[in-house]
């Protein structure tokens, strides 16, 4: 089926352990992320060393139950101490975590070294459990008929507990995460939920890293929730999505760990590391392509907006040229108060002139014109003006096109919005005349029909704008 | 023992000298840089960077070995670590700038994903038949005790560069830390400055990483800076204190571990710094917990004292003919407990504000006490009057409001209130009690 060596007896259990660890972590990770406590997993996984050493020194055995209890106690202690230093000492959250976990780690190291002759404990081995060894240590379940690895059993229980906690207390978690004061006001203790969450994070971190390695649990506490956070605004969706992402990246990570090194002629590499790399890849995809938050969609949306505004501007400029020619012919010298800079217009309006007027480059204007003519808003001017065609062919390319009937109508709508806004700003908002144009220029692209009508009503349906130019009305023509 | 102590402290052994010098200089630089990252609310950036350096180390080793070079040469590995550390920083800044993900999660993402990549690469490195991969882990766990003179020299040079950059750009970094938006508005290249600051952190982290290990370098970046914050509100002072604390912590830790050879020096340095943090946390003169408790207690005492004097004044004012006030009557005026009232009365009589009879059950104000009590009452009533006249608050409710603010009214504000309420004051210059019968109407 797959082009590489895959053994369900081995790889199946490894992937199962990875998925369970990933799901258990990311369930809680969502709330850590929103509470800005993402680094707690990292802090706990460093800090539990004295718990392990202490449990060993006291119980004198390397039984995993004692180790587990010791580690969980110190893990919860890490969270409590960081909270205490943060609240009482007014120290930055990150810094208080940093102080606590480094000090605890150092004291754990010290305990191990001091009791070295009695303790046979390698910190590296304890802290960095290996997920590859999952299938080796199995428990028999006679009534099931199969032997299940111990790790998978433990992680299943942890996952179940976390899922129950999140499922049962979803509302409480949500309220206390977003508004702790409201939680207290509505009658349940936000700090109780907080400490329950801390305890579960500690249990999960310890259970996961003694079986599958701490790097995986740190990654899965943060990366899948962050990825889901970029994809949705709803907490429920975020929790579900992050579990899915976590599971997929656990599976994908194991496949990557087997496949990628083989391209370079190596055997498989560390699965836990690759699982977190897979989660990182998922995050990168979301970072780039998430529909709302992603980099590229945002960039495209921004460019598209810029582009359509430029097209609008070109269209209205063409209309203004046409209009000034018309007014210039019909009542050339009358125009009372008409300060519109008709005189500043050169006799032959060319693309470079448009580009300069709109503060952009020729290339963009040419493309905008091409776009407009594709949409049937303008047509080439050559056929209508044989006079200008007689000029050189290179000049002919930069002569501006003519508006079509559809284009004129659209331009009139935009110009109408623009001038209605100017009128409104002058009469209702008292904006200074020299700042009118710039403001109206921004609004004109976002003014729909309904707003136009309202503006019209508010300004008593004027026929000329503050500069004395007529306000077109495409519906009446 | 004392001979041994003297040998260590006078730095007679070459090895001890190197270790102590190296870690002390690193502690100095890390403390200084740590202040800036702490105030930038990025205290754990060193944590993220130290983890992010791993794929660079493993990758550099892989590439160098594959090209037939000596993979474990220090410059190559350091270059690899620096490159991937810088990549990590760029990723953090990008995530921070381009998405709504917060600082801590951005650090966490980079930390775990890069470290995961590093672990995966190490998994491949161990399979290589060429080159000797053993010892690459020492980059993560450090090898403080076996620091060579070359390492110490590297630390010294890198630290000097970082300290000089920080001093040269002090003003810019300060603005960046306290008000990024303002710095941007003043035309400082905020992104560039941020990048420079983070590069300095990269250099300190990576130099420290190979010399003393991951956890120690994080501790040196975080703990001295966090401790220094308890002592001062001024950045320069804080930087000086943090550097000194970092240096002292390193010195003490390294010296202790040199005297008792079984103790790992890295852990001892962290513990020494942690001890410094504990001391600062408790007795730091600016934000220390005990100092703040003491300050609050002082404030409460002075508030109690002012309340007591005012109550006494009002009781005498109500009935000018009486000579003294009995204890039980005083007790009923406010919700204070017997013990508290007793303590307040004792203190007030000791300081000469009130006199008491032999049985200590009847009290009267001394002349000094009366002047003070009159001043306090006046202040309280001025504010009440102000609230009634200008804030339209019902007379029944002004007492509580005035109670809350009267203790912090400055003389200037009192003078201002006086001019505002000039024609309400009358001849006595003492406003009437708005709660007394007949006056409130």
Automatic annotation (TrEMBL), chain A:
GO CC entries: ATP-binding cassette (ABC) transporter complex
Keyword tRNA processing: no
Subcellular location: Cell membrane
Membrane topology classification: Multi-pass membrane protein
Membrane-spanning intervals of the chain: 12-34, 39-59, 65-85, 97-116, 147-170, 182-206, 212-231, 238-260, 272-291
Predominant localisation class: membrane
Gene3D superfamilies per UniProt: ABC transporter involved in vitamin B12 uptake, BtuC (1.10.3470.10), Winged helix-like DNA-binding domain superfamily/Winged helix DNA-binding domain (1.10.10.10)
SMART domains the record matches: HTH_DTXR (SM00529)
GO molecular-function term, one example from the UniProt record: protein dimerization activity
Region feature Disordered, mapped onto this chain: 442-477
Domain Iron dependent repressor metal binding and dimerisation: 404-473
Similarity comment: Belongs to the ABC-3 integral membrane protein family.
UniProt-listed PANTHER family: ABC-TRANSPORTER METAL-BINDING PROTEIN (PTHR30477), METAL TRANSPORT SYSTEM MEMBRANE PROTEIN CT_070-RELATED (PTHR30477:SF8)
Protein name as catalogued: Manganese/zinc/iron transport system permease protein
Lineage, top ranks: Bacteria, Pseudomonadati, Planctomycetota, Planctomycetia, Pirellulales
From TrEMBL, chain B:
PROSITE patterns, per the entry: PROKAR_LIPOPROTEIN
Pfam families found in the cross-reference section: ABC-3, Fe_dep_repr_C
InterPro entries (UniProt xref): ABC_BtuC-like (IPR037294), ABC_TroCD (IPR001626), Fe_dep_repressor (IPR001367), Fe_dep_repressor_sf (IPR036421), Iron_dep_repressor (IPR022689), WH-like_DNA-bd_sf (IPR036388)
Gene Ontology terms: biological process: response to zinc ion; transmembrane transport
Transmembrane segments: 20-39, 48-68, 74-95, 107-126, 196-223, 235-260, 266-289
Record-annotated Iron dependent repressor metal binding and dimerisation domain positions: 366-423
Location(s), subcellular: Cell membrane
Keyword Phosphoprotein: no
Annotated Gene Ontology cellular component terms: ATP-binding cassette (ABC) transporter complex
Molecular function terms from GO: DNA-binding transcription factor activity; protein dimerization activity; transition metal ion binding
Top-level taxon: Bacteria
Keyword annotations: Cell membrane, Membrane, Transmembrane, Transmembrane helix, Transport
Bilayer disposition of the protein: Multi-pass membrane protein
Record Gene3D superfamilies: ABC transporter involved in vitamin B12 uptake, BtuC, Winged helix-like DNA-binding domain superfamily/Winged helix DNA-binding domain
UniProt family annotation: Belongs to the ABC-3 integral membrane protein family.
Name of the protein in its database record: Manganese/zinc/iron transport system permease protein
Species this protein is from: Aporhodopirellula rubra
């Amino acid at each position: 089926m797959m082009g590489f060596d895959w053994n369900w007896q081995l790889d199946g259990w490894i992937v199962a352990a990875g998925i369970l660890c990933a799901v258990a972590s990311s369930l809680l990770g969502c709330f850590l992320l929103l509470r800005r406590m993402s680094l707690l997993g990292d802090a706990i996984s460093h800090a539990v060393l004295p718990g392990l050493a202490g449990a060993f020194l006291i119980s004198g055995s390397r039984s995993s139950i004692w180790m587990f209890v010791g580690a969980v106690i110190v893990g919860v202690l890490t969270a409590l101490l960081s909270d205490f230093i943060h609240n009482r000492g007014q120290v930055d959250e990150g810094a208080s975590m940093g102080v606590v976990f480094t000090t605890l780690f150092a004291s754990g190291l010290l305990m191990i070294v001091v009791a070295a002759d009695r303790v046979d404990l390698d910190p590296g081995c304890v802290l960095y459990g290996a997920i590859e060894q999952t299938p080796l240590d199995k428990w028999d379940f006679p009534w099931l008929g199969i032997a299940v690895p111990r790790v998978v059993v433990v992680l299943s229980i942890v996952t179940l507990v976390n899922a129950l906690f999140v499922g049962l207390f979803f509302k409480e978690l949500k309220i206390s995460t977003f508004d702790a004061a409201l939680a207290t006001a509505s009658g349940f203790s936000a700090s109780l939920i907080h400490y329950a969450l801390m305890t579960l994070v500690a249990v999960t971190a310890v259970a996961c890293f003694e079986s599958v390695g701490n790097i995986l649990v740190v990654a899965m506490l943060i990366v899948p929730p962050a990825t889901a956070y970029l994809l949705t605004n709803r907490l429920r969706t975020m929790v579900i999505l992050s579990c899915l992402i976590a599971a997929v990246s656990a599976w994908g990570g194991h496949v990557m760990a087997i496949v990628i090194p083989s391209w370079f002629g190596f055997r498989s590499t560390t699965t836990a590391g690759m699982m977190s790399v897979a989660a990182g890849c998922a995050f990168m995809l979301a970072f780039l392509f998430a529909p709302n938050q992603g980099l590229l969609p945002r960039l495209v949306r921004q460019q598209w907006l810029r582009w359509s505004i430029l097209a609008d501007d070109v269209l209205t400029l063409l209309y203004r040229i046409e209009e000034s020619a018309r007014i210039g012919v019909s009542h050339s010298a009358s125009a009372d108060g008409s300060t519109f800079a008709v005189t500043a217009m050169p006799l032959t309006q060319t693309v470079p002139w448009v580009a300069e007027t709109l503060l952009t480059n020729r290339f963009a204007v040419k493309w905008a014109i091409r776009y407009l003519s594709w949409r049937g808003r303008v047509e080439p001017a050559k056929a209508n003006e044989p006079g200008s065609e007689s000029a050189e062919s290179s000049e002919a390319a930069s002569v501006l096109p003519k508006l079509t009937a559809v284009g004129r109508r659209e331009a009139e709508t935009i110009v109408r919005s623009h001038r209605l806004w100017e009128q409104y700003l002058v009469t209702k908002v008292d904006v200074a005349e020299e700042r009118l144009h710039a403001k109206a220029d921004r609004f004109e692209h976002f003014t729909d029909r309904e707003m136009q009508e309202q503006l019209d009503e508010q300004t008593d349906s004027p026929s000329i704008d503050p500069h004395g130019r007529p306000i077109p009305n495409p519906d009446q023509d | 023992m004392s001979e041994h102590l003297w040998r260590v402290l006078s730095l007679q052994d070459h090895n001890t000298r190197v270790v102590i010098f190296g870690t002390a200089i690193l502690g100095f630089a890390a403390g200084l840089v740590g202040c800036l990252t702490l105030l930038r609310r990025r205290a754990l950036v060193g944590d993220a960077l130290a983890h992010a350096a791993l794929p660079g180390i493993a990758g550099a080793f892989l590439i160098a070995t594959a090209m037939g070079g000596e993979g474990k040469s220090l410059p190559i590995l350091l270059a690899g670590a620096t490159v991937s550390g810088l990549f990590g920083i760029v990723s953090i800044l990008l995530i921070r700038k381009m998405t709504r993900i917060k600082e801590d999660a951005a650090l966490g993402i980079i930390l775990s994903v890069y470290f995961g990549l590093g672990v995966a690469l190490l998994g491949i490195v161990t399979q290589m038949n060429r080159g000797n991969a053993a010892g690459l882990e020492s980059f993560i766990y450090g090898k403080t005790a076996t620091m060579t003179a070359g390492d110490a020299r590297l630390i010294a040079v890198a630290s000097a560069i970082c300290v000089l950059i920080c001093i040269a750009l002090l003003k810019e970094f300060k603005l960046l830390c306290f008000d990024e938006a303002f710095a941007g508005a003043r035309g400082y290249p905020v992104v560039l400055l941020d990048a420079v600051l983070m590069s300095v952190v990269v250099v300190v982290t990576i130099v420290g990483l190979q010399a003393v290990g991951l956890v120690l370098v994080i501790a040196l970046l975080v703990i001295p800076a966090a401790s220094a914050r308890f002592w001062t509100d001024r950045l320069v002072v804080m930087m000086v204190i943090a550097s000194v604390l970092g240096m002292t912590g390193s010195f003490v830790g390294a010296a202790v571990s040199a005297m008792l050879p079984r103790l790992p020096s890295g852990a001892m340095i962290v513990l020494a710094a942690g001890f410094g943090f504990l001391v600062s946390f408790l007795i730091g003169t600016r934000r220390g917990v005990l100092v703040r408790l003491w300050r609050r207690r002082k404030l409460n005492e002075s508030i109690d004292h002012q309340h007591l004097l005012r109550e006494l004044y009002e009781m005498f004012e109500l009935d000018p003919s009486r000579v003294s006030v009995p204890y039980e009557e005083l007790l009923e005026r406010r919700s204070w407990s017997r013990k508290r009232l007793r303590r307040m009365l004792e203190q007030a009589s000791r300081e000469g504000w009130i006199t008491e009879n032999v049985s200590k059950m009847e009290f009267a104000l001394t002349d000094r006490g009366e002047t003070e009590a009159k001043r306090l009452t006046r202040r309280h009533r001025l504010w009440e009057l102000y609230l009634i006249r200008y804030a339209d608050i019902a007379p029944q409710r002004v007492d509580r409001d005035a109670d809350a603010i009267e203790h912090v009214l400055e003389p200037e504000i009192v003078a201002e209130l006086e001019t505002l309420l000039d024609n309400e004051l009358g001849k006595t210059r003492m406003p009437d009690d708005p709660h007394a019968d007949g006056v409130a109407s």
